[in-house]
Amino acid sequence: MRTQPRLEKTRIVIAVAGKASFYHLPLTLAEQLGYFRAEGLDVEVMDHAADVRASQALLSGSADICAGTFEQTLSLQSGGQFFPCFVLQTRAPQVAMGTSTKGFASYQAAADLRGRRVGVSAVGSPTHMMASLVALRGGLRAGDVQYVGVGSSAGALGALRSGQVDAMSNIEPVMTMLEQKGDVRLIADCRTLRGTSEVFGGPMPAACLYASEDFLRRAPHTAQAVANAMVRSLKWLQTAGPGDIIKAIPESQLLGDRALYLAAFDKVRESIALDGLVPQEGPRTALAAMTAFDVNFRPERIEPARLYNNDFALRAKDRYKA
């Protein structure tokens, strides 16, 4: 019989931005399926309006762990703060980009984006990063394309359909809704591993749980319990059918349309991590992307080995044979 180690903390707060998104589906499932409770944890998931707000909650001490983008671990480290990812939720950014079939039917190649307006969920977000990398691979520079923050809901749909933007880089369910109505022609798809490699040049770790190195040292059993619950959630997702997903997710997160939710989930399913581990090449891919995207980013300050700690996910993987 496996003995449960004494947890340093039983009540923890996880800060997140966009809890209801597919990006953080493994976290939602670990909560809804009782996997945190099974590990002896009382977890409060605090939802914030933006990744930077969630990150600030962690930095201020009002949260113990943050569920956010892997890029945030680089941004923090470039500022001298070490908050490694210790369990990966998604292994692709879950972002797709398409051009308007009505207002930009002339599109042939990325170079055609010159002078065009591209809708992104928010300036500086992963959707903006992906769109800029697509443009960069077409030989364009930052000033050659106008990026417009349009959100990731009805406002984004309206912006493309009304002609306010010529192309869209966004998350689910926005992109599935635009695809279903024939409003966009996809030109890049980072909801898949292949599409992610084409845009980023390699595996790109995306949603993750990260905490301070100090927290991981002071509360290793607590961090391990969190990783156990998350990897168990990832394992559950590998075999879950549509009906299982619908039953497990709160009604408030089903977009008011179960068929749409499942269609969007099908688009991103491949992106979900299998075992919580950050791939070896992942940090290098992320470092190259951040360097290309953000002119203020300081890559020389980054120690790639301190961007992540796979020890917790490895032990959880062994426990649950993920």
What brief labels describe this structure?
14 helices; single chain; 322 residues; alpha/beta; 10 strands; globular; 41% helix; 5-stranded mixed β-sheet; 16% strand
Oligomer: single chain
* Adjacency order of strands in the biggest sheet: 2-1-3-10-4
End-to-end distance: 20 Å
Shape: globular
Low-confidence stretches: none
Task: Map the helices and strands.
Elements: E1 11-17, H1 25-32, H2 35-38, E2 42-48, H3 51-60, E3 65-69, H4 70-78, E4 85-88, E5 95-100, E6 117-120, H5 126-137, E7 146-149, H6 154-161, E8 167-170, H7 174-180, E9 184-190, H8 193-200, E10 207-210, H9 213-218, H10 220-239, H11 242-248, H12 258-268, H13 282-293, H14 311-320
Describe this structure in words.
The chain has 322 residues and is α/β, with parallel strands linked by helices. The chain contains 14 helices and 10 strands. It has helices spanning 25-32, 35-38, 51-60, 70-78, 126-137, 154-161, 174-180, 193-200, 213-218, 220-239, 242-248, 258-268, 282-293, 311-320, and strands spanning 11-17, 42-48, 65-69, 85-88, 95-100, 117-120, 146-149, 167-170, 184-190, 207-210. Helix 10 crosses helix 14. The two termini are 20 Å apart.
